[in-house]
Specification:
With 260 residues, the chain is of the alpha+beta class. The chain is built from 6 helices and 9 strands; from the N terminus they run E-H-E-E-H-E-E-H-E-H-H-H-E-E-E. A 6-stranded mixed beta sheet has the order 4-5-6-7-8-9, sandwiched between helices. Strands 1-3-2 form a 3-stranded antiparallel beta sheet, covered by helices on one side. Helix 4 crosses helix 5 and helix 5 packs across helix 6. The longest helix has 25 residues. The C terminus is likely disordered.
Amino acid sequence: MVDKEVHYVTKTVTTVRGAEARSIAKWEHQGWKCVSQLELPMFRTQLTFRQVKPKPPWLVIGIAGGVVVICFVVILIMSLITGGDDHSVKPTTMPTAASTEPSPEPSAEPEEKYVYNGPQYETVAVDAGRSPAALNQYWIYSAALDTASDAYKDQIKSILYDIARTEGSALFLAEVVMEREIALAESPSTYETFVRDYGEDYAITAIPQKEPAGWIASYAGGFDYNTGEASDSAFELTYWPAGSPEVEKWKPGEAHDDGQ
């Protein structure tokens, strides 16, 4: 009897708001179909895909198993015919005398002292256990970024590298803003205080208007926004996450120049 019922497998993907078309095209090229979109906080969108679940190739597995059995029988017969005698001559090797002289110890080079040379910045808040990867999320305010040119990108990398040294790892989340109010309104640990001081209406209406030009960068190290899962190999730096996102694969400590 042929099973005519169609079974599906689903995949959930999280992407930066405005980059949905790129993610949909990527996964549809691999045979997935987008069936729903859900807007999330932090200017993210959750995409749900599905595709027909492939049936197990039982015929191929059966043929492969038969081939293995036949090969085993042939080897067994040949072993019985030859009697299992081993007439091969094994080469002998003469042991060599180990050197009694100790190898010289490499001279330790003095470690170069780290000096932060990036723009002045303030850590407004640190939220622990964010995302499914349970990472620390840093909210960074800096009014010294030079956004008139691409120099701001190296300045942001200097800040992130400095945070990575403090964190002791590149696995963390960081949001870099030039409007301190954005950090206070978006950080879960400061949101209630911000609403109490400025009002909920201000947080809902005024802050989103500031974010396209004031939210400069968003870094994710150890969390893959495409799959929505933790990943020790996922490192992504997004410029202007609330405006026109520009994504770069980058990890603090790799080809870093401290903004110099």
